[in-house]
Automatic annotation (TrEMBL):
PANTHER family: F-BOX/KELCH-REPEAT PROTEIN SKIP4, F-BOX_KELCH-REPEAT PROTEIN SKIP6. It comes from the Eukaryota. It comes from Camellia sinensis. InterPro entries: F-box/kelch-repeat_ARATH (IPR050354), Kelch-typ_b-propeller (IPR015915), Kelch_FKB95 (IPR057499). The lineage of its organism: Eukaryota, Viridiplantae, Streptophyta, Embryophyta, Tracheophyta. SUPFAM superfamilies: Kelch motif. This is FKB95-like N-terminal Kelch domain-containing protein. Residues 58-343 form the FKB95-like N-terminal Kelch domain.
């Protein structure tokens, strides 16, 4: 005998229960994949990652549904090693948004040589990810310098709010500069009307901003206000306020921000990592729905570990289909799961029996040694590189290679 000890009876029993649970989740996910057929969509994920040397790498990953997609593949042991499409200096103080296949960087700090008092910059840079040789170029600057502004895209226009460190502004002067909008077609910036005083941050930009395209409005909620939500009406160019106790209370309990919130129609969706649940708030009716997200497997257990800090991003892909992106602190691996949310089904496992959410497929991406995800955004695919190392319209470069990496 070599002195090897066998697992105890309790350990073997727990292992069998775990395997049965994983098998049941795999079967249900397979059932969803065979019964739910989403409409064709073309989407890509844009990753902004930082290195230990304080540089920035940019990645683009194609997550479109194609005829050869295997939505039943839920194996987290296979990773795709990504190759950056661009490298820049550290720009973590700028805001990241995407319009079609164009990536925008807005604001940040102007760091002059031998200058210790950094000031916000008006600079706006863009990169066309559909180009075979993507390069950053400067476009029309903002009217006001901003640092880490909150930016949302509605109907192809960029709405930028805050980030200009307003402190006790003079009446009818600085308050009108708190928000502005950029039209990529006319290439012009214009200020929005004066917002409610409660929206103005003291020193830092502390607001949550979501675009409600179907309503032609933008919802803005100050983080220091737990009862009030404000609406900017794009067509009428006015601000209005609305009292939403249920939404705000639940949002603050869950610790939700812009990253892990998505909008589909008139409904706001967000993911609660503490309970692994998907929540939905119907804006017009005020109904609050919730349900457990099933099928995350071992990745879901990692997400529940409160000892590890995680960044979570939620994106709406098409119809009932969403995408959840997250990574662990200081990790070079990014997790991505596509899942379906259905309001019409009922499950006793749900928090209130109102939502069903099941993972269809999952994929891990490896960003490289000493490289950590800093930000993510969703873009419409337009002749972009896909994750299999191919290009839709060009054959020169690739942004991803399919490589199996050990855990």
């Amino acid at each position: 005998m070599l002195g090897l000890s066998l697992p105890s009876r309790g350990a073997r029993r727990r292992r069998r229960r775990r395997l049965r649970r994983l098998l049941r989740q795999r079967q249900i996910s397979t059932l969803w994949a065979t019964t739910y057929q989403p409409e064709r969509y073309e989407k890509c994920l844009c990753f902004r990652a930082s290195t230990r040397k304080r540089n920035t790498k940019w990645f683009v990953v194609n997550i479109s549904n194609r005829d050869d997609d295997n939505d039943n593949d839920n194996d987290w042991t296979k990773k795709l090693r990504l190759s950056p499409i661009s490298r820049t200096k550290c720009d973590s103080d700028s805001s990241l948004v995407c319009v079609d296949s164009t990536i925008y960087r807005l604001g940040g700090f102007y760091r002059a040589p031998k200058c210790y008092n950094n000031r916000p910059t008006k600079d706006v840079l863009c990169l066309d990810a559909s180009s075979p040789s993507p390069r950053w170029k400067s476009i029309v600057s903002m009217n006001v310098g901003r640092t880490c502004p909150t930016t949302v895209v509605v109907n192809g226009k960029l709405y930028v709010m805050g980030g200009n460190s307003i402190r006790n502004p003079a009446k009818d002067t600085e308050t009108d500069r708190w928000a502005e909008v950029f039209d990529p077609h006319t290439k012009k910036w214009s200020f929005l009307p004066k917002p409610p005083d409660d929206l103005l941050p003291s020193g830092e930009n502390l607001v949550m901003c979501l675009g409600l395209e179907d309503l032609h409005k933008i919802m803005v909620t100050p983080y220091n206000s737990s009862k009030q939500a404000y609406l900017y009406d794009i067509s009428q160019n006015i601000w209005t306020s609305k009292h939403h106790v249920d939404l705000c209370d639940h949002r603050f309990v869950s610790g939700v921000d812009n990253k892990d919130t998505a909008v589909f129609g008139n409904t706001l969706y967000w993911y609660d990592k503490n309970y692994r649940s998907v929540n939905a708030y119907e804006w017009e009716t005020g109904n609050l729905l919730s349900g457990k997200l099933k099928g995350l497997g071992t990745a879901g257990w990692k997400m529940e570990d409160i000892r590890v800090q995680k960044d979570i991003y939620l994106f709406h892909l098409s119809g009932k289909l969403f995408c959840l992106v997250w990574n662990e602190e200081l990790s070079s691996t990014v997790h991505c799961s596509k899942f379906v949310v259905d309001k019409s089904c009922y499950s006793h496992d749900n928090c209130n029996g109102s939502l069903c959410a099941w993972v269809l497929s999952s994929q891990d991406y490896y960003l490289g040694h000493n490289t950590t995800l800093y930000d993510a955004a969703l873009m419409n695919k337009k002749s972009l590189f896909d994750s299999a190392g191919k290009v839709q319209s060009h054959q020169e470069n690739s942004s991803a290679m399919s490589v199996e990496l050990p855990n």
